Structure prediction request, 105 residues.
Amino acid sequence: MSTAAPGPSAKTSTSTTETWALSATEALAAFRSKELSPVDYLEALIGRITAEDERINAVTEVVEEAVTSAREAETFYTNATDDDLAEAADASRAPVPDVRCSDFP
Prediction:
């Protein structure tokens, strides 16, 4: 992970939606299409947390496990073939709630 997290206005390359505002479903689709890296997504979320921390005081630290998981996911999505992605999608058919950071005041 880079040392400087993008600010709250970090955007995806294919959309005007702010990266931190993507739902889990949207982020997963962007990972699969290789438009967004899990590490970049985590950095955008950290940037948003940092920008809003004084106002909402919701998070005090980023768990190292999140960083490790994002790096592992980035490696998977960077190297994944279409077959790998299809297999991963089949293995994870549980519904993912479409929740956005912006849903919370």
In short: Residues 38-56 form the longest helix (19 residues). Residues 1-15 have pLDDT under 50 and may be disordered. The helical segments are 24-32, 38-56, 64-79, 82-91. The chain is about 50% helix and 0% strand.
